[in-house]
Amino acid sequence: xxxxxxxxxxxxxxxxxxxxxxxxxxxxxxxxxxxxxxxxxxxxxxx
Amino acid sequence: xxxxxxxxxxxxxxxxxxxxxxxxxxxxxxxxxxxxxxxxxxxxxxxxxxxxxxxxxxxxxxxxxxxxxxxxxxxxxxxxxxxxxxxxxxxxxxxxxxxxxxxxxxxxxxxxxxxxxxxxxxxxxxxxxxxxxxxxxxxxxxxxxxxxxxxxxxxxxxxxxxxxxxxxxxxxxxxxxxxxxxxxxxxxxxxxxxxxxxxxxxxxxxxxxxxxxxxxxxxxxxxxxxxxxxxxxxxxxxxxxxxxx
Lengths: 47, 245
Known about the structure:
The complex is a heterodimer of chains A (47) and B (245).
Chain A: H1 2-25
Chain B: H1 16-38, H2 46-69, H3 74-102, H4 109-134, H5 140-168, H6 174-199, H7 205-228
């Protein structure tokens, strides 16, 4: 049981760290896409 | 009018640079699957190869949608973001499969799976909360984009945690280490590019030309890992120097 709780705790820590990092990096963003996978061109914003 | 990839003087147009990079990236993704097949690594790294296979199929489908409806069309817009969401989910699963490889000797498979599900559900809930707060009604496309971006940052942190675990438990499988490191470099380059773009407070075309190149890096490094590094190869972990007093 304690190992399961440890796994959940680590998952929560990663989530908190990732969202904190995103907030830090995207502080001044205008909502544009951070990253996209693959080489396809990102479509222009829709009105 | 802003110039850069996909932004010509006559509006939104794609030039030779975008098509060339896209084509090279797709070729490299095919190369990953071919290299893994030739080196009998398809089943061992099933999720990684599934991600590359899915990326190839989605690239072809995106080209078809682009060709039929145009770059600035709603059809391409929606298809792009929904397919990107699918790719992000598969990349997330591929990353967690690397965790399973690293912790295979500790018999921690069920805990990795539990952590994977909890983290995915947590990220989805967080994304839902963000979308609900920013608009009065839930827009599905907005949620999909938000979840993709959040999963990307989760992947970034997961890769660094995995790298720390590799160092801690003195993992020696060279190919596995190469796959983890290249994934970490890919995530880091994209995040650094985005951060620089925000810090400079300008939409420099340089920062817009770079992301497609980063997209080529991941399949290139994975293809190298499958083709050049045998599964049996081992890296000797660095030893701490013991200084006698």
